[in-house]
Amino acid sequence: MMRKNKRIISFICVCVLLSSTACGNKTTIKQHNKQTEITLSWWGNDARNEYTIEAVEIFEELHPDIKVKCSYSEWSGYEARSRVQMHSATEADVMQINFSWLSEYSPDGTGYYDISTLSDIVNLDFFSDSELDYGKINGKLNAIPIAMNSETVYINKTIYEKYGLDIPSTWDDLFNAAKVMSKDGIYPISGALKSMWLYILSYTEQKTGKTFIDSDGTLNFDEDDLKIMLDFYVQLVNEKVIPQFEYFDRLNIDNGNYAGVVAWVSDAVNYCGSAIDNGYEIIVADYTADTPENCGKGWCAKPATMYAISRNTTHPEESAMLLDFLLNSEEMAGLQGIEKGIPLSSSARKYLESENLLTGIQYDASVKMESNDSMKQMNPFSENENLIDMFAESCNVVLYERSTSEEESKKLYEKMKKEYQKQKNS
Description:
alpha/beta, D-Maltodextrin-Binding Protein, domain 2, 2 domains, 8-stranded mixed β-sheet, disordered N terminus
Protein backbone atom coordinates (compact mmCIF):
# COMPACT_ATOMS: atom_id res chain seq x y z
CA MET A 1 0.00 0.00 0.00
CA MET A 2 2.88 2.35 0.91
CA ARG A 3 4.64 1.73 -2.43
CA LYS A 4 1.38 2.48 -4.27
CA ASN A 5 1.02 5.79 -2.41
CA LYS A 6 4.63 6.73 -3.28
CA ARG A 7 3.93 6.09 -6.96
CA ILE A 8 0.80 8.29 -6.83
CA ILE A 9 2.75 11.09 -5.13
CA SER A 10 5.53 10.83 -7.71
CA PHE A 11 3.01 10.94 -10.53
CA ILE A 12 1.37 14.09 -9.06
CA CYS A 13 4.79 15.78 -8.74
CA VAL A 14 5.59 15.07 -12.37
CA CYS A 15 2.23 16.43 -13.46
CA VAL A 16 2.80 19.63 -11.47
CA LEU A 17 6.21 20.13 -13.06
CA LEU A 18 4.83 19.52 -16.53
CA SER A 19 2.04 21.99 -15.86
CA SER A 20 4.44 24.70 -14.67
CA THR A 21 6.63 24.20 -17.74
CA ALA A 22 3.62 24.55 -20.06
CA CYS A 23 2.70 27.87 -18.40
CA GLY A 24 6.08 29.40 -19.28
CA ASN A 25 8.01 28.63 -16.02
CA LYS A 26 11.76 28.03 -16.63
CA THR A 27 11.68 24.84 -14.55
CA THR A 28 12.24 21.80 -16.77
CA ILE A 29 12.61 18.10 -16.23
CA LYS A 30 16.11 16.79 -16.89
CA GLN A 31 15.90 13.46 -18.66
CA HIS A 32 18.48 10.81 -17.65
CA ASN A 33 17.90 8.25 -20.34
CA LYS A 34 21.60 8.05 -21.19
CA GLN A 35 24.57 7.57 -18.88
CA THR A 36 27.74 9.59 -19.19
CA GLU A 37 30.61 7.15 -19.66
CA ILE A 38 34.09 7.99 -18.41
CA THR A 39 37.21 5.85 -18.24
CA LEU A 40 39.60 5.08 -15.39
CA SER A 41 43.01 3.43 -15.67
CA TRP A 42 45.54 2.21 -13.11
CA TRP A 43 48.29 -0.32 -12.57
CA GLY A 44 48.73 -2.82 -9.78
CA ASN A 45 48.42 -6.38 -8.53
CA ASP A 46 45.24 -8.44 -8.22
CA ALA A 47 44.44 -7.08 -4.76
CA ARG A 48 44.56 -3.48 -6.01
CA ASN A 49 42.46 -4.36 -9.02
CA GLU A 50 39.80 -5.98 -6.87
CA TYR A 51 39.37 -3.17 -4.36
CA THR A 52 39.45 -0.48 -7.06
CA ILE A 53 36.75 -2.24 -9.06
CA GLU A 54 34.66 -2.56 -5.89
CA ALA A 55 35.12 1.15 -5.21
CA VAL A 56 34.05 2.01 -8.75
CA GLU A 57 30.88 -0.03 -8.29
CA ILE A 58 30.08 1.97 -5.15
CA PHE A 59 30.71 5.22 -7.03
CA GLU A 60 28.34 4.14 -9.79
CA GLU A 61 25.65 3.36 -7.20
CA LEU A 62 26.08 6.83 -5.73
CA HIS A 63 26.04 8.39 -9.22
CA PRO A 64 23.76 6.26 -11.41
CA ASP A 65 24.11 8.75 -14.28
CA ILE A 66 27.83 7.98 -14.57
CA LYS A 67 29.27 4.76 -15.97
CA VAL A 68 32.97 4.09 -15.35
CA LYS A 69 34.88 1.88 -17.77
CA CYS A 70 38.00 0.44 -16.12
CA SER A 71 41.37 -0.41 -17.66
CA TYR A 72 44.22 -1.90 -15.61
CA SER A 73 47.31 -4.10 -15.79
CA GLU A 74 50.70 -4.72 -14.21
CA TRP A 75 53.15 -1.82 -14.24
CA SER A 76 55.23 -2.78 -17.28
CA GLY A 77 52.23 -3.27 -19.54
CA TYR A 78 50.51 -0.19 -18.15
CA GLU A 79 53.52 2.03 -18.75
CA ALA A 80 53.96 0.85 -22.34
CA ARG A 81 50.28 1.20 -23.17
CA SER A 82 49.97 4.59 -21.50
CA ARG A 83 52.95 5.89 -23.44
CA VAL A 84 51.16 5.12 -26.70
CA GLN A 85 47.86 6.51 -25.44
CA MET A 86 49.38 9.76 -24.22
CA HIS A 87 50.93 10.38 -27.63
CA SER A 88 47.74 9.45 -29.49
CA ALA A 89 45.35 11.35 -27.15
CA THR A 90 43.44 8.17 -26.27
CA GLU A 91 44.30 8.01 -22.56
CA ALA A 92 41.67 7.46 -19.85
CA ASP A 93 39.68 10.38 -18.45
CA VAL A 94 41.03 9.69 -14.96
CA MET A 95 44.36 7.91 -14.70
CA GLN A 96 46.91 6.81 -12.20
CA ILE A 97 50.26 8.28 -13.22
CA ASN A 98 53.85 8.08 -12.08
CA PHE A 99 55.49 11.22 -10.68
CA SER A 100 58.10 11.26 -13.46
CA TRP A 101 55.35 11.47 -16.09
CA LEU A 102 54.72 15.10 -15.21
CA SER A 103 58.08 16.21 -16.59
CA GLU A 104 57.92 13.69 -19.42
CA TYR A 105 54.41 14.38 -20.73
CA SER A 106 53.69 17.85 -19.37
CA PRO A 107 56.90 19.88 -19.20
CA ASP A 108 54.97 23.13 -19.72
CA GLY A 109 51.95 22.17 -17.62
CA THR A 110 49.55 21.57 -20.51
CA GLY A 111 49.90 17.79 -20.76
CA TYR A 112 47.11 17.14 -18.23
CA TYR A 113 43.92 18.90 -17.18
CA ASP A 114 44.35 21.73 -14.69
CA ILE A 115 42.54 20.26 -11.69
CA SER A 116 42.53 23.59 -9.85
CA THR A 117 39.81 24.74 -12.27
CA LEU A 118 37.64 21.93 -10.88
CA SER A 119 38.15 22.80 -7.21
CA ASP A 120 34.41 23.24 -6.71
CA ILE A 121 34.15 19.48 -7.28
CA VAL A 122 37.51 18.10 -6.12
CA ASN A 123 38.02 19.13 -2.50
CA LEU A 124 41.61 20.36 -2.40
CA ASP A 125 41.29 21.57 1.19
CA PHE A 126 42.15 18.03 2.35
CA PHE A 127 45.71 18.55 1.03
CA SER A 128 48.43 20.95 2.11
CA ASP A 129 49.91 23.42 -0.36
CA SER A 130 53.27 21.64 -0.21
CA GLU A 131 51.60 18.32 -1.08
CA LEU A 132 49.76 19.84 -4.03
CA ASP A 133 52.99 21.46 -5.22
CA TYR A 134 54.24 18.02 -6.24
CA GLY A 135 51.57 17.99 -8.95
CA LYS A 136 52.01 21.55 -10.20
CA ILE A 137 53.78 22.45 -13.41
CA ASN A 138 53.95 26.14 -14.33
CA GLY A 139 51.28 26.88 -11.77
CA LYS A 140 48.86 24.31 -13.20
CA LEU A 141 47.70 21.45 -10.97
CA ASN A 142 48.32 18.54 -13.31
CA ALA A 143 47.97 15.77 -10.73
CA ILE A 144 47.29 15.10 -7.05
CA PRO A 145 49.53 12.76 -5.04
CA ILE A 146 47.78 9.85 -3.33
CA ALA A 147 50.58 9.15 -0.86
CA MET A 148 54.30 9.78 -0.47
CA ASN A 149 57.05 7.30 -1.17
CA SER A 150 60.75 6.82 -0.57
CA GLU A 151 63.26 4.04 -0.75
CA THR A 152 63.42 2.43 2.69
CA VAL A 153 65.70 -0.05 4.47
CA TYR A 154 63.98 -3.21 5.71
CA ILE A 155 66.09 -5.45 7.95
CA ASN A 156 65.50 -9.06 8.95
CA LYS A 157 66.07 -8.62 12.69
CA THR A 158 65.87 -12.39 13.25
CA ILE A 159 68.94 -13.00 11.09
CA TYR A 160 70.97 -10.11 12.45
CA GLU A 161 70.31 -11.28 16.00
CA LYS A 162 71.29 -14.81 15.01
CA TYR A 163 74.75 -13.47 14.16
CA GLY A 164 74.88 -11.25 17.25
CA LEU A 165 74.75 -8.08 15.16
CA ASP A 166 72.96 -4.81 15.84
CA ILE A 167 70.57 -3.38 13.28
CA PRO A 168 72.78 -1.56 10.73
CA SER A 169 72.56 2.20 10.36
CA THR A 170 75.86 3.01 8.64
CA TRP A 171 77.70 1.75 5.56
CA ASP A 172 80.44 0.37 7.81
CA ASP A 173 77.82 -1.66 9.69
CA LEU A 174 76.88 -3.40 6.44
CA PHE A 175 80.48 -4.21 5.51
CA ASN A 176 81.10 -5.59 9.00
CA ALA A 177 77.95 -7.71 8.74
CA ALA A 178 79.13 -9.11 5.41
CA LYS A 179 82.32 -10.38 7.03
CA VAL A 180 80.18 -12.50 9.35
CA MET A 181 77.31 -13.53 7.06
CA SER A 182 79.09 -14.17 3.76
CA LYS A 183 80.48 -17.51 4.91
CA ASP A 184 76.87 -18.76 4.91
CA GLY A 185 76.01 -17.13 1.58
CA ILE A 186 73.85 -14.45 3.20
CA TYR A 187 73.90 -10.84 2.02
CA PRO A 188 73.37 -8.10 4.64
CA ILE A 189 71.36 -5.95 2.20
CA SER A 190 69.91 -6.27 -1.30
CA GLY A 191 67.64 -4.55 -3.77
CA ALA A 192 66.40 -4.33 -7.34
CA LEU A 193 68.36 -2.30 -9.88
CA LYS A 194 66.57 1.04 -9.42
CA SER A 195 66.63 0.77 -5.65
CA MET A 196 70.36 0.04 -5.65
CA TRP A 197 71.03 2.91 -8.06
CA LEU A 198 69.28 5.31 -5.67
CA TYR A 199 70.98 3.66 -2.69
CA ILE A 200 74.44 4.20 -4.15
CA LEU A 201 73.41 7.69 -5.21
CA SER A 202 72.62 8.52 -1.57
CA TYR A 203 76.06 7.23 -0.53
CA THR A 204 77.76 9.44 -3.10
CA GLU A 205 75.81 12.53 -2.08
CA GLN A 206 76.83 11.93 1.53
CA LYS A 207 80.47 11.39 0.59
CA THR A 208 80.80 14.39 -1.75
CA GLY A 209 78.36 16.80 -0.13
CA LYS A 210 76.89 17.40 -3.60
CA THR A 211 73.39 16.72 -4.87
CA PHE A 212 72.86 14.73 -8.05
CA ILE A 213 70.40 17.37 -9.31
CA ASP A 214 70.32 20.88 -7.85
CA SER A 215 67.03 22.37 -6.63
CA ASP A 216 66.82 24.43 -9.83
CA GLY A 217 67.01 21.26 -11.93
CA THR A 218 70.67 21.56 -12.93
CA LEU A 219 72.67 18.35 -13.35
CA ASN A 220 75.30 18.58 -10.64
CA PHE A 221 77.29 15.31 -10.76
CA ASP A 222 80.40 15.02 -12.91
CA GLU A 223 82.65 12.14 -13.97
CA ASP A 224 84.49 12.15 -10.63
CA ASP A 225 81.21 11.61 -8.78
CA LEU A 226 80.24 8.80 -11.14
CA LYS A 227 83.62 7.18 -10.54
CA ILE A 228 82.82 7.11 -6.82
CA MET A 229 79.52 5.37 -7.61
CA LEU A 230 81.15 2.77 -9.86
CA ASP A 231 83.92 2.04 -7.35
CA PHE A 232 81.43 1.74 -4.51
CA TYR A 233 79.26 -0.73 -6.42
CA VAL A 234 82.29 -2.92 -7.16
CA GLN A 235 83.27 -2.80 -3.48
CA LEU A 236 79.75 -3.73 -2.35
CA VAL A 237 79.69 -6.75 -4.68
CA ASN A 238 83.25 -7.94 -4.10
CA GLU A 239 82.87 -7.79 -0.31
CA LYS A 240 79.53 -9.63 -0.46
CA VAL A 241 77.44 -6.79 0.93
CA ILE A 242 74.96 -6.98 -1.97
CA PRO A 243 74.32 -9.41 -4.82
CA GLN A 244 74.98 -8.20 -8.35
CA PHE A 245 72.12 -6.29 -9.92
CA GLU A 246 71.21 -9.05 -12.34
CA TYR A 247 71.24 -11.78 -9.68
CA PHE A 248 68.80 -10.13 -7.28
CA ASP A 249 65.93 -12.52 -6.48
CA ARG A 250 63.02 -11.48 -4.28
CA LEU A 251 62.53 -15.07 -3.12
CA ASN A 252 65.81 -14.79 -1.22
CA ILE A 253 64.13 -12.28 1.10
CA ASP A 254 61.49 -14.88 1.93
CA ASN A 255 63.97 -17.66 2.71
CA GLY A 256 66.45 -15.53 4.63
CA ASN A 257 69.32 -15.51 2.13
CA TYR A 258 69.02 -11.72 2.11
CA ALA A 259 69.12 -10.22 5.61
CA GLY A 260 67.79 -6.91 4.34
CA VAL A 261 66.32 -5.16 1.33
CA VAL A 262 66.00 -1.62 0.04
CA ALA A 263 62.55 -1.03 -1.43
CA TRP A 264 59.85 1.60 -1.71
CA VAL A 265 57.44 2.32 1.13
CA SER A 266 54.64 1.28 -1.21
CA ASP A 267 56.37 -2.08 -1.80
CA ALA A 268 56.88 -2.95 1.86
CA VAL A 269 54.34 -5.76 1.92
CA ASN A 270 55.27 -7.05 -1.55
CA TYR A 271 58.92 -7.42 -0.54
CA CYS A 272 58.62 -8.31 3.13
CA GLY A 273 55.18 -9.86 3.61
CA SER A 274 56.16 -13.44 2.79
CA ALA A 275 59.24 -13.29 5.01
CA ILE A 276 57.06 -12.12 7.88
CA ASP A 277 54.64 -14.96 7.14
CA ASN A 278 57.62 -17.33 7.31
CA GLY A 279 58.28 -16.28 10.89
CA TYR A 280 60.99 -13.66 10.40
CA GLU A 281 60.81 -10.34 12.25
CA ILE A 282 61.26 -7.60 9.65
CA ILE A 283 61.74 -4.05 10.89
CA VAL A 284 62.14 -0.63 9.28
CA ALA A 285 65.72 0.47 9.87
CA ASP A 286 67.34 3.90 9.69
CA TYR A 287 68.29 5.27 6.28
CA THR A 288 71.87 4.13 5.75
CA ALA A 289 74.38 6.96 6.18
CA ASP A 290 78.05 7.59 6.85
CA THR A 291 77.15 8.43 10.46
CA PRO A 292 73.88 7.91 12.37
CA GLU A 293 73.51 11.69 12.64
CA ASN A 294 73.25 11.97 8.85
CA CYS A 295 70.33 9.53 8.61
CA GLY A 296 68.19 10.62 5.65
CA LYS A 297 70.81 12.79 3.93
CA GLY A 298 71.07 11.95 0.25
CA TRP A 299 67.70 10.20 0.37
CA CYS A 300 64.65 11.43 -1.55
CA ALA A 301 60.88 11.37 -1.24
CA LYS A 302 58.31 11.59 -4.00
CA PRO A 303 54.62 10.91 -4.53
CA ALA A 304 54.05 7.16 -4.43
CA THR A 305 51.55 7.55 -7.21
CA MET A 306 49.23 10.26 -8.46
CA TYR A 307 45.86 10.77 -10.11
CA ALA A 308 45.45 13.03 -13.13
CA ILE A 309 42.64 13.96 -15.48
CA SER A 310 43.19 13.81 -19.22
CA ARG A 311 43.48 17.14 -20.96
CA ASN A 312 41.42 15.56 -23.74
CA THR A 313 38.46 14.57 -21.57
CA THR A 314 35.02 15.64 -22.79
CA HIS A 315 33.57 15.05 -19.32
CA PRO A 316 35.70 17.08 -16.87
CA GLU A 317 32.98 17.46 -14.23
CA GLU A 318 32.17 13.76 -14.07
CA SER A 319 35.89 12.95 -14.09
CA ALA A 320 36.40 15.36 -11.20
CA MET A 321 33.60 13.67 -9.25
CA LEU A 322 35.34 10.30 -9.65
CA LEU A 323 38.71 11.81 -8.74
CA ASP A 324 37.31 13.32 -5.55
CA PHE A 325 35.76 9.97 -4.63
CA LEU A 326 39.03 8.09 -5.18
CA LEU A 327 41.03 10.55 -3.08
CA ASN A 328 38.73 11.70 -0.31
CA SER A 329 35.83 9.31 0.26
CA GLU A 330 35.52 7.02 3.27
CA GLU A 331 34.43 4.20 0.96
CA MET A 332 37.65 4.29 -1.07
CA ALA A 333 39.79 4.86 2.03
CA GLY A 334 38.32 1.80 3.72
CA LEU A 335 38.90 -0.44 0.70
CA GLN A 336 42.36 0.86 -0.18
CA GLY A 337 43.71 1.12 3.35
CA ILE A 338 47.42 1.89 3.12
CA GLU A 339 48.09 -0.34 0.11
CA LYS A 340 49.36 2.73 -1.79
CA GLY A 341 50.91 4.26 1.32
CA ILE A 342 49.37 6.43 4.00
CA PRO A 343 46.92 8.65 2.11
CA LEU A 344 47.72 12.34 2.07
CA SER A 345 44.05 13.30 2.04
CA SER A 346 43.22 14.35 5.60
CA SER A 347 39.71 13.04 5.05
CA ALA A 348 40.91 9.56 4.06
CA ARG A 349 43.54 9.48 6.80
CA LYS A 350 41.05 10.54 9.47
CA TYR A 351 38.78 7.66 8.48
CA LEU A 352 41.62 5.13 8.59
CA GLU A 353 42.62 6.36 12.03
CA SER A 354 39.06 5.99 13.28
CA GLU A 355 38.98 2.40 12.01
CA ASN A 356 42.43 1.52 13.44
CA LEU A 357 43.70 0.68 9.97
CA LEU A 358 47.03 2.50 10.24
CA THR A 359 49.17 -0.49 11.22
CA GLY A 360 51.75 -2.86 9.74
CA ILE A 361 55.20 -2.59 8.19
CA GLN A 362 54.07 -0.26 5.42
CA TYR A 363 52.66 2.12 8.00
CA ASP A 364 55.94 1.91 9.97
CA ALA A 365 57.87 2.76 6.79
CA SER A 366 55.60 5.73 6.11
CA VAL A 367 56.06 7.06 9.63
CA LYS A 368 59.85 6.70 9.26
CA MET A 369 59.73 8.70 6.02
CA GLU A 370 57.43 11.43 7.32
CA SER A 371 59.44 11.93 10.51
CA ASN A 372 62.76 12.44 8.73
CA ASP A 373 63.54 16.11 8.05
CA SER A 374 66.67 15.47 6.00
CA MET A 375 64.91 14.04 2.97
CA LYS A 376 64.63 16.14 -0.16
CA GLN A 377 62.20 16.06 -3.05
CA MET A 378 63.18 13.63 -5.76
CA ASN A 379 63.94 14.98 -9.21
CA PRO A 380 62.30 12.79 -11.91
CA PHE A 381 65.62 12.43 -13.76
CA SER A 382 66.85 10.32 -10.85
CA GLU A 383 64.43 7.63 -12.04
CA ASN A 384 65.30 7.85 -15.73
CA GLU A 385 65.28 4.23 -16.92
CA ASN A 386 67.85 4.79 -19.68
CA LEU A 387 70.24 6.41 -17.22
CA ILE A 388 69.87 3.56 -14.74
CA ASP A 389 70.51 0.98 -17.47
CA MET A 390 73.62 2.91 -18.54
CA PHE A 391 74.87 2.88 -14.97
CA ALA A 392 74.29 -0.86 -14.61
CA GLU A 393 76.17 -1.53 -17.83
CA SER A 394 79.11 0.61 -16.71
CA CYS A 395 79.14 -1.16 -13.34
CA ASN A 396 79.62 -4.52 -15.03
CA VAL A 397 82.32 -3.15 -17.33
CA VAL A 398 84.32 -2.14 -14.27
CA LEU A 399 83.37 -5.19 -12.18
CA TYR A 400 84.64 -7.57 -14.88
CA GLU A 401 87.72 -5.39 -15.45
CA ARG A 402 86.97 -4.60 -19.08
CA SER A 403 87.86 -1.00 -18.29
CA THR A 404 88.91 1.13 -15.35
CA SER A 405 86.40 3.11 -13.33
CA GLU A 406 88.20 6.29 -14.34
CA GLU A 407 87.78 5.63 -18.07
CA GLU A 408 84.27 4.22 -17.74
CA SER A 409 83.05 7.16 -15.63
CA LYS A 410 84.04 9.56 -18.42
CA LYS A 411 82.00 7.58 -20.94
CA LEU A 412 79.08 7.31 -18.57
CA TYR A 413 79.18 11.05 -17.90
CA GLU A 414 78.92 11.86 -21.61
CA LYS A 415 75.99 9.47 -22.00
CA MET A 416 74.32 10.91 -18.91
CA LYS A 417 74.61 14.48 -20.19
CA LYS A 418 72.99 13.52 -23.48
CA GLU A 419 70.15 11.72 -21.71
CA TYR A 420 69.64 14.65 -19.37
CA GLN A 421 69.46 17.10 -22.29
CA LYS A 422 67.11 14.77 -24.13
CA GLN A 423 64.67 14.65 -21.22
CA LYS A 424 64.99 18.39 -20.67
CA ASN A 425 64.10 19.11 -24.30
CA SER A 426 61.30 16.55 -24.55
